[in-house]
Amino acid sequence: MNFAKAAFVGAIALGFTATAALAEYPERPINMVIPYGAGGATDISARTIAEPLGAAVGKPLVMSNITGAGGATGSVAAQNAKPDGYTMLFARVGSHSVNPAMKATLPYTLDDFRFVTVYEINPVACAVTPASGIKSMDDLIAKVNEGGVAYSSSGVGSLLHLAAAMVLKEFGVEKPLEAATHIPQKGGGAAATAVLNGTATFLCTNSSALASFVSNGQLVPLMVTTPKPVAGFDAPTAADLGKPALEKLVGWTGIAGPKGLPDDVAEKWGKWMASATADEGFRSKMEARGSVIELMNPKDANDFIRGQYTIFRALVDELGMRIEG
Amino acid sequence: MEDRSIQIQLGIGAIAASVFLISVAIPFWVSSPSNVPNIILSPLFWPNVLSALTGLIGAGLILTSVVRPRPEQAAKSDVDDRPAAFRRLAIMAVIMTATVLVMPRLGLVWTAMVTFVATAFLVKTKHPRSALVCAVLIPLVLYVFFAHIAGVAIPQGDFVRLP
Amino acid sequence: MSFIDSLFAGLQLVGNVEAFLALGIGVVIGVIGGAIPGMSATMAVALTLPFTFSMSPITGILLLLGVYKGGIFGGSIPAILIKTPGTPASSATVLDGYPMAENGQAGKALGMALWASCTADLISNLALIFFAGFLASFALSFGPPEFFTLILFSLTIIAGVSGDSLLRGGLSAMLGLLLATIGLDLVYGTNRFTFGNPNMMGGLNFIAVLIGLFAIPEILSMVWNPSSHDGVARSLGKNKVTFKEYQRSFKSIVRGSFIGVFLGSIPGIGAAPSAFLSYSEARRKSPNRENFGKGEIEGVAASEAGNNGVAGATLIPLLALGVPGDVITAIIMGAFMIHGLQPGPMMFILNVDVIYGLFIGLIVSSVFLFFVGSVAIRGFKYVADIPRGVLFPAVLVLCVYGVFAVNNNIFDVGVMFAMGAVGFVMMRYKVPAAPFLIAFILGPLLEDNFRQSMLMSGSSGWVLFRGPITWFFWTLTAITVFAIVRAGIRATRQTSVPTP
What average pLDDT does range C452-461 have in this prediction? Predict the structure, then answer.
C-alpha cells in the first residue's frame, strides 16, 4: 500500500510542477505537424530544419507526422488547433496550393491558415526513361500528339498531377487531359517506379525525388522549371525553352499556424527562421538534395502561396480538373 | 450458439448489408464524377462488386446450412448470467467511448489511468492493489517513453500538464 | 574489381568496432521497439534516423538495418504473449503463437519464432547477396497487370486461414475489402464513405484496424466472462524449443524464407502478406493441418520465416534500382541520400565497398539477432504470468498509447475501439479475423492495380493477360482455387449428416 501511495503522490507532484505561471511564448515544447509520412520529402526537410530551428526557438520542437489524404488529415489537425503558436504545420505545395486549387470538398481553404514563412523552393523536373527514345520536350510533345502517352503521379491532386498537365498545356497541347493518360500511383516513389517499369511515359516532379535516378542513368531529365539550371540535371530550363510561365511551377515548404495566430508569434517565427536558415549545416544539407533555400517573411510567404494558388486554380478551371465529389 | 443458427444469422446479415450498401450507402456516400469514360473505372464499380459478392456469400451461408446441415454441436452457454454479461459489455462500451471523447480535454495520461482502473474493476480483478499501482505507473512510464524518448506529442489536455 | 577484392574493400569498411556496435545497438532498439505494440518497426527506424546523420554512412545504415531486422522479430513477442502484433508483419504469428501461449507454451513459441526468424533472415540476406541483380530486373517487369494477378493469387491465402468454414472466411474477407474502400478514390480523388470527416479521407489506419481486430476482442471477452480463465493458470513457460521441433518445421521455414525473398524483392507488397502466404502454404502441406490455429508450432515457424524472409530482400529493389519496397526501406533510402549515396545500379560500380560492407554487416546481423532475441525472450516471457485482471487493462492502455503514436491522431484510437467491437461480434459468430486483415491489406492493391491496368490499356481487359508473368499467376490461381473447391466439397461430404 505504501508503494501505491508513493506512486500517487509522485504522480500528482509531477503534474503540478508543470503548471507554472504564464510566461513569454514559447514556454513549453512546440508541436510541429508534418502532414506527410516519415522518409518523404516534407519529412526530411522538416527534420533538417528542426535542428537549427530548435536551437533558435530555445524550446524543443516535437515532430508529429499526421499522414493521410495527400496532406489533408494533418493540415486539418493544425487548422483545428488553438491558435496559440504551440501547434504549427509544415505546409507543402501539395497540401496548400495544389489541393485547395483542385479539390472542392477539401475541409480547409488558404484562409484557415496563417503562413509565417516559406523557406525552401524545389525545382520541378520532367523525366523519361532512356529506353523511351525521347530526348527533348519537343520529342515528348510529338509523342503526346501521336497518342498513347501516359504520365504518373503520386495521386490525384498532387503536385505531380498538376505539373504534368500544366507542362503539356504550356507546350501547346490543346487538351492535355485527353491527349495523355494520367495513371495515379500511391506516393512519389511508386510514381517514379511506374516510369521506370514502363507503366507511364513521363513524370514531372521535384528534382530531389529524381536526382538519384538521373545520376544512375535510369531516367533522362527533359526540363527543369527554375530560372537557373539544376546541378546534376543536364536539361534546359523552362526559360531556355521559351516557357517562362512554368517558373511558377515549383515545390516549396513553409510553416503555417492556425488562422488566429497572434502577430507577435508570427513575428517571432520570422526571426527564428532567419537565424535557422543562416545555419551552414542546414544550407549544405538542403542544397545537396537539390533544394534552393529562399527565406520569405510572413507577408511574402502569403503572397507567394496565394499567387501560386491563383495560377493553379485558373489552370484547373480551364482544363476542368476540379474534383467536386 | 449452435452452428446452424450462426450460419443462418450471418447469411441474413450479409444479405441485408449487401442490399443496404447497394441501394442506400453507395449511392449516397460514394461520389463519382459525371464524366467517367468507362463504368469499370468509376469509383462506384468496386464497392458495388464487393457488395454483390457479400450478398452471394450470405446466400451461400443460408443455403449450406439448409441443404447440408453440419452435425449439431451441443449448444453450451459460456456465461451463467447473460444479462450481467451484456451489462458489463455496455459499461465497457461507455468506458471506450468516454476514453476517446475525454482524451483531448483531460490529456492521454490521466485518461489512461481512469480507463485502467475502470476496466480492472469491471473485470473484477483479483489483485486490486497491484491494479491500482499499475494504473498509475504504467500510463506514466508509457508517457515518459513516448514523449521523451520517442518524441511523440502525447495529448496533454487543458488541466494538468506533465513536463 | 573481382568478387574477392570487393569483399575485402567491404571488410575494410565495416571491420571496426563502431560498425558492429551500431549494428548490435540497432538490433536491441529494434527488438524493443517492435515489442511495443504501435511502436512498430517503421517508427523505430524513423526515430533512429536522425541519430545516423552524424555517423559515417556505413555505420549509420547498419544501425538502421539492425533496427529494421530487430523490429520485425520483436513484433512477434507481443503477438504471442498478448495477441497484439507489435508490427503488422507479425499478425500471422498471432494465429498459432497466442494459442500456444494460452496452452502454457509461450517460451516454446517465442523460441521457435526466434529460430525461424534468424534462419529466414540468413536465407534472405544470402539471396540479396547472390541474386540482387537478377531479382531486381525481375521486379521491374512487374507493372500493374502483373501486380493484379499476383495479388489475386495472394487472396487465395484466405482459404488457408479461414478455419473450418470457407464461407465464413469469405464473409470476413468481404468485410475487410469493403472497409478498405473508405477514403479518397485513387483515380478521381472523390470521397468514398468518408462522411465529410477529414480523418477518414486517408482511409482507416492499418495499425488501428489490426490492433482493434486482434487485441481488443480479447479484452471484451474478458469483460464478457471475467471468470472464464480461473483455474487455467498460464504456466511460466519455462519450456524451450527443441532441435527436433526445429527440424520438423525446417521445410516450412525454408519455404517461408523463399516466399519472403520473392515477395520482398517486388516493391510494394511488404512483410504481412508474405507471412500469411507462408503460413497458409505450411498449413496446406503439413500432416498436422488440423492443429493449425490451435497452437501448432510449425505455424509460428512459417509465419516468422515469411516475414523475416522479406527483411533482406526488400533491400534488393532499394540497392539495385533505387526503388524503396516499403515505408521502412524508404526511410533507409533517406539515410543513403543524406550521406550522398544514391542507391541504384551505379552504386554497384561507384560504391562497391559500401555495398559489400552492407552485405557483411547483414550476415552478422542475423547472428546478433539470435543473441539479442534470446535475451529478450527470457525477459519478456514472464508477461505470460501476469494475472489477467492486471494484464488486460494494461494491454488496453498500451494499445491506446501505441495506436495514438502511429499517426498522432486520437481518431485512430476510436477506430481501434470500433474495430474491437466488430472483432468481438465476429468472434462470437465464429467468423475468423485473419481473412479480414489479409483482405484489408490486399484489397486496395487489387483495386488500384486493376484500375491502373485499365487506364494503361484504355479499358481493354487483355492487358491483364500480357506476358508470361500474368499467365503464370493466372494458372497458379486457377490451380489453387480448384484445389480449394475440391477440398471444400470433400470436407462437406464427410462432415454432413444425411437429412432425415
Answer: 88
Chain centroid to Cα C156, Å, comes to: 17
Please report whether residue C294 resides in a domain. yes
Q: Which residues, 6 or more positions from C133, have their beta carbon under 8 angstroms from its beta carbon?
A: C320, C348
Q: What is the pLDDT of residue C494?
A: 63
B46-75 burial by CB neighbour count: b if 16+ within 10 A, else e?
Answer: bbbebbebbbbbbebbbebbeeebbeeeee
CA distance C227 to A37: 44
Contact across the interface for C188 and B32, Cβ inside 8 Å: yes
Distance of CA A253 to the CA centre of its chain: 5
Which candidate from C198, C205, C458 shows the least CB-CB separation from A72? C198
Domains annotated on chain A, with CATH: 29-123+250-319 (3.40.190.150), 124-248 (3.40.190.10)
Which residues lie across from A181 on neighbouring strands? A150
The residues with which A115 forms a beta bridge, in sequence order, are A256
Look at residue A283 and tell me whether its pLDDT is greater than 80: yes
CA distance C71 to C89: 10
Q: Is residue B98 over pLDDT 70?
A: yes
Return the residue in C174, C406, C410 with the most chain B beta carbons within 10 A, the one to mutate for interface testing.
Answer: C174
Nearest to C110 by CA among C324, C399, C263, C303: C303
User: A40 or C398: which carries more pLDDT confidence?
Assistant: C398
**The residue to which cell 573481382 is assigned:** C2
Cβ atoms C29, C39 nearer than 8 A: no
Q: Which residues lie closer than 8 Å to A45 by C-beta, 6 or more apart?
A: A90, A120, A253, A286, A291
Q: Locate cell 449428416: which residue?
A: C497
Name the residue among A14, A63, A324 with its Cβ closest to that of B33: A324
Q: From residue A66, how far is each of A43, C45, C77 by CA, in Å?
A: 11, 17, 27
Average pLDDT score over chain C = 84
Residue C216 is assigned to a structural domain of this protein: yes
| Chains in contact with chain C (at least 3 beta-carbon pairs closer than 8 A) | A, B
Confidence band for C262, pLDDT divided at 50, 70 and 90: confident
Residue C323: left (phi > 0), alpha (psi -120 to 50), or beta?
beta
**pTM score above 0.90:** no
- Per-residue model confidence as pLDDT tens digits over A117-151: 999 998 999 999 999 999 999 999 999 998 889 99
Task: Domain ranges for chain B, please list them.
Answer: 3-67, 82-149
Residue B89 has a pLDDT of 93
> What distance in Å separates residue C187's CA from the closest CA in chain A?
6
- Nearest-angstrom CA–CA distance, B92 and B115: 10
Q: Which residue has the cell 510561365?
A: A245
**Residue C468 resides in a domain:** no
Span of C138-152, C181-195, C233-247, C478-492 with lowest mean pLDDT: C233-247
Q: How confident is the model at residue A1 (pLDDT cuts 50, 70, 90)?
A: very low
Q: Give A154 to chain C, closest Cα distance, Å.
A: 10
Instruction: Report which of A131, A147, A102, A289 is spatially closest to residue A198, judged by C-alpha positions.
Output: A131
Query: Strand, coil or helix: what is C57?
Result: helix
Count of domains for chain C: 1
Query: Quick check: is C111 in a domain?
Result: yes
In this prediction the ipTM stands at 0.92
Cβ–Cβ gap C223/B116 under 8 Å: no
